[in-house]
Design goal:
- GO terms for molecular function: ATP binding.
- This is ATP-binding protein.
- It is a single chain.
- By secondary structure, the protein is α/β, with parallel strands linked by helices.
- The protein has a single domain, classed as P-loop containing nucleotide triphosphate hydrolases (Rossmann fold, 3-Layer(aba) Sandwich).
- Helices cover 39% and strands 22% of the residues.
- The protein contains six helices and nine strands, in the order βαβββαβββαβααβα.
- The chain has a five-stranded parallel beta sheet, with helices on both faces. Strands 3-4 form a two-stranded antiparallel ribbon.
- A hairpin with a 2-residue loop joins strand 3 and strand 4.
């Protein structure tokens, strides 16, 4: 029997508007940032003496895929709640899809699991948000300052580094199987999947 649900993976550089576009879709949204590793995890990557939170190795891809698998097959799963300002998981919560045939899983590392989700028959689509770099930089800095994720100087330096790295980030995400698209195009394609009825497996 086919699974009743499918996932739409939404990647893109930090600050590109993934959360906003995911919410605009009207679908249930799984935040993949909640699958970061805890700050004391010995497997965290180190760069220049500091934890490299921009590396996919700082993120628990296996746990994310297992939760997506449960959601696709059963429509519900327990998911972690991660406090970025504390660098750790602080709780778990119940996530349910109800009757929605699609849900969005969004995060900077979403493209890292495109291949595995496709292999397991979980995938409806995979996209990497593309927008002007200056807009992404300003959006990201305003968000991080408002959420007090780190000190202002740290956030500014991080933002400038991410600005320089953004083209490489998009190249990696598209290389992993996510299609580069503007936000409005992602929403149009998701609406098309819904209009077509039960979404087929992408494979």
């Amino acid at each position: 029997m086919s699974n009743p649900h499918r996932v739409v993976l939404l990647a893109g550089p930090s600050g590109s508007g993934k959360s906003y576009i995911a919410q605009q879709s009207g679908l249930p949204v799984l935040c993949l940032d909640d699958f970061y590793k805890d700050g004391d995890d010995p497997t965290l990557p180190i760069r220049n003496g500091q934890i490299d939170w921009e590396s996919p190795d700082s993120w628990d891809a296996e746990a994310a895929v297992e939760v997506i698998d449960q959601l696709v097959r059963h429509g519900r799963a327990d998911v972690p709640v991660y406090a970025i300002n504390e660098d750790r998981r602080v709780a778990t919560r119940r996530f349910e899809l109800a009757s929605s045939p699609l849900f969005v899983a969004e995060g900077i590392f979403a493209a890292e699991i495109v291949g595995e989700c496709r292999r397991r028959g979980l995938l409806a689509g995979a996209y990497a948000l593309r927008r002007p770099r200056s807009a992404t930089f300003l959006r990201r800095l305003a968000r991080d300052l408002a959420e007090q994720r780190k000190g202002p100087r740290v956030l500014l330096l991080r933002g400038l580094a991410l600005l320089r790295a953004e083209p490489a980030v998009l190249r990696r995400q598209t290389g992993l199987g996510a299609e580069a698209a503007r936000g409005r195009d992602v929403l149009r394609r998701v609406a098309g999947l819904l209009a077509a009825g039960h979404p087929p497996q992408i494979g």
